[in-house]
Amino acid sequence: MKTKEYLKELSLTILGVLIALLIDNYREDVRDEKIVRSYLDIVAEDLNFDIINLNKQLKQDTTYAKDLSYLSDVLTSNQDLPYLKYSLASWTKQNAVPQRKLSTWDSLDYYTRSLYSNHEYTIRKIGFSTIVNSGLSHQIEQDLLKKITIYYTTDSDNLDFVTAIDERCHWLGIEFLNKYQGSFKDIILTDNFNVTHLRNEASGRYSTTLTEMRVKKMTIEKAKELLTSIENY
Questions:
Q1: pTM for the predicted model, two decimal places
Q2: Distance CA 179, CA 118 (A)
Q3: Residue 71's closest CA among 152, 161, 188?
Q4: What confidence tens digit (pLDDT) does each residue in 62-113 have?
């Protein structure tokens, strides 16, 4: 009898411990779920931040691209400058622009300076970094976690690479022109300046800016898709 009573009491004790553990695990799961939900709310805030600021940059990029295109057209077609058959600008489509004597064109300083106004953008990762460092990413449904990870790794790296291309390239005319802020129109008409550099920079930066704008638009669409997935989670 004593053995049976002992086993009965032991069984009840073990059962009680197991029930307590199950309750604790349930409470932890509920707590972790709330924590992960708060982290996803931060990711949603980051995505809204990206959408708003990338749209603002696209407006700036549009003006920037127009300036670059106009400058490239002027430097390629203006009769004040020697025609260089193998300049980069000669490989891109150029638009006809009214002939204006560069020696009297005060606006040339403004358009040339706009060459150096590249707009970079880095995706904000506060929520994603919080999830990674929390060790609770396993609490998120795998398909959603995959979408989040791709946006903040592959898509983010691609945006960083594309928007930083101008910074990685060695634009040959910049170092020379920076010595003559405010008097570009005088300098480029002298024998000391190889106008090929400036033509190529205008044409090259116009091309890379269009690529940046395309990638930023794609990033906005991906951010919107991910935001919808999080809101429906």
A1: 0.75
A2: 20
A3: 188
A4: 988 888 888 777 777 776 766 555 555 555 666 666 666 666 666 666 666 6
